[in-house]
Amino acid sequence: MQNVITLLPESVANQIAAGEVVQRPASIVKELLENAIDAKATFIKLIVKDAGKTLVQVSDNGSGMNPVDARMAFERHATSKIKKAEDLFHLHTKGFRGEALASIAAVAQVELKTKREEDIVGQLIEIEGNRFVRQEECQAPTGSSFVVKNLFFNIPARRNFLKDDAVELKHIIDEFERVCLPHPDIHFQLFSNGNEIYNLPPASLIERISGLFSKNLQGKLVQINEETDVVRISGYVGKPENSKKRRGDQYFFVNNRFIKSAYLNHSVAEAYRELIAADAHPSYYLFLEVNPETIDINIHPTKTEIKFQDEKIIYALLHSAVKRALGKANLAPSLDFNSEMSFEIDYTKTVSQPIVTVNKDYNPFSTGPKSHSSSSYKQPSYETDLQKVNNQNWENLYQNYTNTDFKQENENLQLEKKAEQSRLLHEVSFQKGFQLYNKYIITAHENGLLVIDQQRAHERILYEHYLATKEKNTATASQQILFPVTIELSPNDYILLESLMPHFKLLGFEIEPFGKSTVVVQGTPAELGEFNTQEMVEGILETYKLNTFDIKLDPFENMCKSMAKSAGIKYGKSLDEREIMLMLEHLFLCENPMYSPNGKPVIMEMSKLELDAFFKK
Hints:
Blueprint: H1 10-21, H2 25-38, E1 43-49, E2 55-60, H3 67-72, H4 100-107, E3 109-115, E4 122-128, E5 131-138, E6 143-149, H5 156-159, H6 165-180, E7 187-192, E8 195-200, H7 205-212, E9 221-227, E10 232-238, E11 250-254, E12 257-259, H8 262-271, E13 284-289, E14 295-296, E15 307-308, H9 311-328, H10 337-341, H11 403-426, E16 434-436, E17 440-445, E18 448-453, H12 454-472, E19 478-488, H13 491-499, H14 501-506, E20 510-513, E21 518-525, H15 533-550, H16 555-567, H17 577-587, E22 603-607, H18 608-615
Parallel strand pairs: 1-7, 11-13
Antiparallel strand pairs: 1-2, 2-6, 3-4, 3-6, 4-5, 7-8, 9-10, 10-13, 11-12, 14-15, 16-17, 17-18, 18-22, 19-21, 20-21
Helix pairs in contact: 1-4, 2-6, 6-13, 8-9, 12-16, 15-16
């Protein structure tokens, strides 16, 4: 009988293992940067080309490797970090499994140059798709330089799953930031297609945070520094007024290792409760130091998940630390612990013991007549017929109901909706409208009243107007700015703006690059009048990211939504009679005036019959 089960070839097994470790170019960046840190490097340079698809190179001035170690590093489960199973709970390094280099070499072309300080010459090793090519001596500086070329060259199907360069570069920057943050004493550089994205010399933690994200962050953060027997908590949390609508700039590090933890996120969010809106999210950069024996980091291939031995204690201490920091900065209500611990109890008052009565004759499984005792306990008097429901014929409810019926019913609902909208929009004769609370527009028609949300209405008008620019293939008129505005963005926002540049131009913006992560706005949409250019551009980018996070949209449609959200009039703006009439005219010319671009209702109708019925009471 022929055997069915056979051992996989080593090359195939390595490719399968690589699928867990190397998901995209950012995975390679993470592993190589962490290896450089473990090598005690003080200077690390990252170079990527075509968002890492063509080239990922990491050079460091670390300890380097001898000829045997350099070759062994590419073998699976070859590591210098652990010798026995118990070492998994005494880890102080980033890597430990010995899978990273073997996995990378299985799906790419890898070149390594490495040299120790005491060696005269270094070592050059080349591996292509898990096939060893050569090893020879070479000239090299002290440290290591890993060059990874043509990722997934031997697995075209996986290469096809990679996203466009802007998306992949964003993931690379995310991983770069996660490695740079906990190591402010190391000099990091990042270059993409020859352009310098980051140059971060050794600095303090707050300077590193500002260098990575924004120079304006220092005045928006509150420091945390708490030490207990269980955990030491340090870092910074954002002030409540600077919270955002999307989750961003939220970082947890345990023993300088980036982790993802919904449990710890909840702890911080609870500390901000009643300080920020329910749909807002604070920024934080928090570092937890715990005894390695009390955590397990070997539960996920990417090592971004951790199990805590004392999870509930960590949760409580983190919550308390954030609360305390916000309280010190006078951002949260202070707590009077003395008054909380004092309970006003009248000890002179006598308390009688409660009396419990039980029906000893009660039998829940009895189907016969129920006997009632004279106690105060009352037994529920359910009819036995309720327990004899005919469950055998419940399918008859759906016997004649088919998928076609559901489709027809849905179409009928859509037709009714369109008919209602047509009645409201085309059979009304508007009277003069007026503004209420600087938030609503009230107008009447022959069948009743309409209450219109002015902000959502304007967003709908602008949204459909911007969408029409693409259909007509005519750019919005632009107005030159007398003094061009220079805007410095975070690298991620700069990359996003670069990808959206054609859409910005179509909508009336004239934006040009001006150095790394900086742009100059030369012109703005002429129809918008006066506004803060920097706030407008940053608001569009922030809303765009929020829409991308919530739902998948066409980029231009998302851009139009973001533009409408940022440019639309806000609650509290007073409108004159002419502006109100223009708002009504343009709204009812929209294709879908009933809802805002985000699907929220714009119009509330109160019929004349409802009014009459109310006053007849």
